[in-house]
Amino acid sequence: MNDQRGRTGATRVLWSYTHDMRAALMWLLLLELVSNGAALAQPLVVRAVVDRLGAGESLVGPVVLLVVIAATGLVLTWLSTYLMERFGQRIVLTVRQRLVRRILGASVSTVEERPVGDFLSRVSGDTTVLRHTVTGMLVHGAAAPLTIAAAVVVMASIDLVLLAIVVAMFGLSMVAAKWALDRVGRASEEAQGHLGGLTSVLQRALVAFRTVKASGTEEWERRLADEAAGSSYRAAVRAGRAEATVDVIAVTGIELSFIVVLVVGAARATSGALTLSDLIAFLLYVVYLRGPVGTLAMVGSSFAEGLAAVRRVRELELLPAEAGDRPATTAPRAEQNGGRNGEPSLRLDDVWFGYQGQPLLRGVTLDVPRGLTVLVGPSGTGKTTVLSLVERFADVDRGRILLDGVDLREIDRGALRRRLGYVQQDAPLLGDTIGAAVRYGVPDPDGADVVEALRTVGLWSWVSGLPSGVDTPVGERGVAISGGQRQRLAVARALLRDPAVLLLDEATSQLDARSERVLMRAVVEQAAHRVVLAVTHRGVVAGLADQVALLDGGRVRAVGRHEELLSSDTLYRELLAVPEFPSAPERGKREERSVISAD
Ligand SMILES: Nc1ncnc2c1ncn2[C@@H]1O[C@H](COP(=O)(O)OP(=O)(O)OP(=O)(O)O)[C@@H](O)[C@H]1O
């Protein structure tokens, strides 16, 4: 019952993919019917040939007709095959475009909780399976029953007894084929699932390729991939075996019908209930049925296979989009350049937030005015989470975050993000070249002053010395440049957006202390007219901040200048690893004392 509901649902989904192609679909169906119809006329012409032969009449007319019918059939077959392929590819294109739009429109948490490989296999692999299913189902699947029905009508006009035999045999083979088709469906779904697993394993290993190599785990990863590939292979072979069984069952029905019709028909012809030419025509129709019946078997198999693909594609199509904005209760000021005094300001007001029902932030209240505010705290306290909430990758559970006095949830998400600049922890680069990576996501990329941005982050002397300058390729995933250079490029990109609020998540952690200080000084200069909220574990950055907020236990434990917190807060001292390191003369004295005491 559930299976049946699944099939009906899947058919409806498949039908929905043809939304703007219904006219093309109807033409295709018509073409298929005409092409099948031409073949349907052949046995009748053969009967005319036999009758004329008996009567000693000329055979030229019927033979010419047979040639015309065959030629027409060939042309129509070529045309319908080509158009079907085109139609199928259009479906794949439509579905892929829909999926990509869905994925990119989904929330950060929705996307991050699934393996990347799973998305890839659904968008590339499952949509390809879908192509055969849609064309098979909607064109062949619709034309074959109509063709069979037409043949049955003609066969009924020739002999009802023989027809009853064919229908009974056909019915029996349908029951047997259904059993095999269920096995095709189950095995195909399993094969596609394991294929998704293989993509995930490979994707994971490729992303962390250096770690895999350095850990010497190539063999381990290979085994995992082999297991997934092997399981997919075994399931696909099982599906193939069941498919072959479906084909044989369908053909067996026709073959048995042919033999029984031949025997019973011969008896009826002998008794005079049937002419010889009728029997030959009827037998030709039985042979003719092999085509549409075989097609039905193929459509059944491909539908069983496609059912799993439809489900997997559908799951992605139903990914929830990012939650909407609340209706504004105050005048929208999202596109304004500043709050009070024209200065941008950010405020976290009793913010509560947790993952999977586990509270993480428990009433964070913090004013982040113009200038540099640094967020420090033990690992896992929720510093990155605070930045995510400002970007509205997720919304607060309780409390509010205000930008220029307006609750973020009342600001259009796109407008909000246009006012923010964000450098995430691993600072990925998107763009083939240095210039493209810096211009990425900048509202006016052509007018952007890439050189100035590169100067600000201290990269211009390096880039200008490269043979291809800003057109130098950065390599996929930015592998052709160092981690520190990548981070500087990411900061340059964020600055080029000219954001009101700049969010930096350990964005300079891979730089040496001197370069980090220089870069952060440049950022601080820029912070004169914007809010900069930076997560860091480094004293170099904290020392430059207008204020430091220490996050601990889900709350703000202390706010102040770096020096104040150093002297007043033990946790802060521990976190920034500021050693109570004695000066050189003191160290000498200490060593002297230890030597003396050892004596
Ligand atoms: N998408 C998520 N789903 C479930 N838990 C999450 C998710 N993101 C973060 N967490 C959990 O929330 C906690 C805080 O994570 P967060 O990255 O905000 O900490 P952090 O203070 O920035 O840490 P670090 O200094 O190590 O980068 C961690 O325990 C983490 O496991």
From TrEMBL:
<dbReference type="GO" id="GO:0016887">
    <property type="term" value="F:ATP hydrolysis activity"/>
</dbReference>
<dbReference type="InterPro" id="IPR017871">
    <property type="entry name" value="ABC_transporter-like_CS"/>
</dbReference>
<dbReference type="GO" id="GO:0015421">
    <property type="term" value="F:ABC-type oligopeptide transporter activity"/>
</dbReference>
<dbReference type="InterPro" id="IPR011527">
    <property type="entry name" value="ABC1_TM_dom"/>
</dbReference>
<dbReference type="InterPro" id="IPR036640">
    <property type="entry name" value="ABC1_TM_sf"/>
</dbReference>
<feature type="domain" description="ABC transporter">
    <location>
        <begin position="346"/>
        <end position="578"/>
    </location>
</feature>
<feature type="region of interest" description="Disordered">
    <location>
        <begin position="324"/>
        <end position="343"/>
    </location>
</feature>
<feature type="transmembrane region" description="Helical">
    <location>
        <begin position="134"/>
        <end position="154"/>
    </location>
</feature>
<feature type="domain" description="ABC transmembrane type-1">
    <location>
        <begin position="27"/>
        <end position="305"/>
    </location>
</feature>
<dbReference type="GO" id="GO:0005886">
    <property type="term" value="C:plasma membrane"/>
</dbReference>
<protein>
    <submittedName>
        <fullName>ATP-binding cassette, subfamily C</fullName>
    </submittedName>
</protein>
<feature type="transmembrane region" description="Helical">
    <location>
        <begin position="65"/>
        <end position="84"/>
    </location>
</feature>
<keyword id="KW-0067">ATP-binding</keyword>
<dbReference type="InterPro" id="IPR003593">
    <property type="entry name" value="AAA+_ATPase"/>
</dbReference>
<keyword id="KW-0812">Transmembrane</keyword>
<feature type="transmembrane region" description="Helical">
    <location>
        <begin position="160"/>
        <end position="181"/>
    </location>
</feature>
<dbReference type="Pfam" id="PF00664">
    <property type="entry name" value="ABC_membrane"/>
</dbReference>
<keyword id="KW-0472">Membrane</keyword>
<dbReference type="InterPro" id="IPR039421">
    <property type="entry name" value="Type_1_exporter"/>
</dbReference>
<dbReference type="InterPro" id="IPR027417">
    <property type="entry name" value="P-loop_NTPase"/>
</dbReference>
<feature type="transmembrane region" description="Helical">
    <location>
        <begin position="279"/>
        <end position="304"/>
    </location>
</feature>
<keyword id="KW-0547">Nucleotide-binding</keyword>
<dbReference type="Pfam" id="PF00005">
    <property type="entry name" value="ABC_tran"/>
</dbReference>
<dbReference type="InterPro" id="IPR003439">
    <property type="entry name" value="ABC_transporter-like_ATP-bd"/>
</dbReference>
<dbReference type="GO" id="GO:0005524">
    <property type="term" value="F:ATP binding"/>
</dbReference>
<feature type="transmembrane region" description="Helical">
    <location>
        <begin position="248"/>
        <end position="267"/>
    </location>
</feature>
<keyword id="KW-1133">Transmembrane helix</keyword>
